[in-house]
Design a protein that fits this description.
Mean pLDDT: 87
Low-confidence stretches: 70-83
Largest sheet: 6 strands, mixed
Protein name: Helix-turn-helix domain-containing protein
Strand content: 5-15%
Shape: elongated
Number of helices: 10
Radius of gyration: 21 Å
Number of strands: 6
Order of helices and strands: HHEEEHEEHEHHHHHH
Distance between the termini: 40 Å
Pfam family, one: HTH_30
């Protein structure tokens, strides 16, 4: 696991995307990496812990190279494609794959961070870096999560189109957002508990420490406010996606 000016200079153009075949070949030689292999990119939202940067492979054989992120031309800071100032790692994956890479960073206290899907060559690192940046944007505000994009695809769609996310939130949760914060939080917390308990009112009541009729009444009120039914799959999708937008917003529910 290495970092420094030399490695950053070689990784930067690959992470920016659009590298020519000659540049890919030179970077592969300079870094000691195969041009083709099982790679993932990690983008961290905070400085990488010193413990994460060490010589030698992981237990499963994964090898890490740390470098600075370079945004693609025209990328805006704060967008999935604008990763300036982020800590970025290229990982030549071992036998355990990207799940183990994410687990290792969690164990070291890194985060928040996003991990890309697996790509098959150094030439694809630019696309992987953009996807890892999108995964990072799905982390809860203020959290230390390390998340893989493949675990957060619906939320990734939302953060990729913020104008549609804003519209979805207003359309689905508009009346709910007019409630006083304490009342709104109670309904949101109940919906979250119900979803996490697989739609069981009884288990949600036990988690929340209230009677099951209380949970039932809160959910019925939420249905009236949003004009959507929890028993209709398409309308439930609307509610779940709106809940994700609310979770990812910086404002408390």
């Amino acid at each position: 696991m290495r970092r420094g000016t030399r490695y950053g200079a070689l990784l930067g153009p690959l992470l920016a995307g659009g590298a020519t075949p000659d540049l890919v070949t030179r970077a592969a030689r300079g870094l000691g990496l195969p041009e083709r292999g099982r790679y993932a990119v990690v983008v961290l939202g905070t400085p990488v812990p010193d413990a994460a940067v060490a010589e030698g492979p992981d237990v499963d054989g994964a090898r890490w190279w740390w470098g600075a992120a370079l945004g693609s031309p025209g990328a805006e800071v704060g967008s999935p494609d604008g990763a300036e100032g982020r800590e970025v790692a290229v990982v030549l994956l071992g036998s355990a794959g990207p799940a183990r890479a994410a687990a290792r960073l969690r164990e070291l206290g890194a985060g928040p961070g996003g991990v890309s899907p697996v790509v098959g060559s150094l030439a694809e690192l630019g696309a992987a870096r953009r996807l890892a940046g999108t995964a990072l944007l799905t982390c809860d505000p203020g959290s230390r999560e390390i998340v893989r994009l493949d675990e957060r695809l619906p939320a990734a769609l939302l953060v990729s189109r913020p104008e549609l996310s804003t519209r979805l939130l207003a359309e689905v949760f508009g009346p709910l957002l007019t409630l006083v914060p304490a009342e709104r939080s109670l309904l949101v917390e109940t919906l979250e508990a119900w979803l996490e308990c697989g739609g069981s009112v009884g288990r949600a009541a036990a988690r929340l420490g209230c009677h099951r009729n209380t949970v039932f009444n809160r959910l019925r009120r939420l249905e009236r406010l949003t004009s959507r039914s929890l028993s209709r799959p398409r309308e439930l999708v609307d509610l779940v996606l709106a809940l994700d937008v609310l979770r990812l917003s910086s404002a408390p529910p």
